[in-house]
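Job type: complex structure
Entries:
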Amino acid sequence: MIGVPEIARFLQSAVCIALLGLVLLKFWSDARLDAFRQEMFIVRDELFDYAASGKIEFDSPAYRLLRQMMNGYIRYGHQLTFFRIALTMIRIRLVDGGSVQDWSVKWDRALKNLHEEEVREEMASFHERAMQCAAKRVVFGSPLLIVVSGFGVAVLLLREGWKNLARIFAVAPTLTFSHVFDPRVIESEAAATAVA
Amino acid sequence: MRKPKKTHPPPAAPVGQPLISRYVLGNMFNLLRRFGGTIVIWSCIAYLGHEAREVLIAYAGKSSFADLTFRLLAQVSIVWELSLTLAGFSVTLYLRERNLHRKTRERLTARITQLELKIDPSRTSSLLTPEGLTREEDR
């Protein structure tokens, strides 16, 4: 026979689980999405300021492509989850019959067409920062990828030692992301959805 | 002069089965991608609800409702009440701050867009709402 203390404990646990579910699935998820978008807006604003300073033309394909990709990430940031990306990858393999990398091809070409080395490096750095934001969002939103990323950190620590600890923690999500998924496909998807 | 040889157009690519199956499969993946998470969450909630029902059924008829309520309330500890109150305050504060943040974004967005359009008339947008939220049609 179940006693009153057991029922009380059951009800307390049920209320706690319900509240925890609400916090994790709604508030925490919303806060993470806001933080991701905020971070991407910062990179996009800095890119705008860089172009406004006259270092690169606003009509330059490299600028336009990068902004297009960032707009896609911001607009569909809520879909940037392990579950959705995994399904997208499977769909591309099974239904579309291969990988879609339109954006990547155009980006490589646009980057090569930039004459100044300094501008090319700066644009590549903006691209890398946007990639890091996306990688962090996907990796830290999935318990499985957090574990994989933890292993990545351990491997990097063994290889590079304690001196580069800050760099290792910054690079780990991007490395995990690019090992699990093909980032070129994600970027192409993001860019395609930005204009859709 | 030799008459040019009549050429036949190449036979049309077989349409039908493979295309339909791809279309269906593609749509299935899209639906799963969109609603998969929601289905999992609601399934868990339904399962927990079912388990709670089982417990309550086992207890039904063994005690009066008033007696049970009284004894249940007597079991609630002060630590639990305090924890719940603190959590409630924290969530309320978070929601208040979040609303303020959204209002600030809404106030500043139009101005920033206008200023940026002066510098770059072909400026592209992320197409979020003025509050910085996902649009209904993009969900």
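Summary: The interface with chain A takes residues 22, 25-26, 29-30, 32-33, 36-37, 41, 45, 48, 52, 55, 58-59, 62, 68, 71-72, 75-76, 80, 84, 87, 91, 94, 98, 101, 116, 119-120, 122-128, 132, 134, 138-139 of chain B (CB under 8 Å). Residues 42 and 69 of chain B are 29 Å apart (CA to CA).
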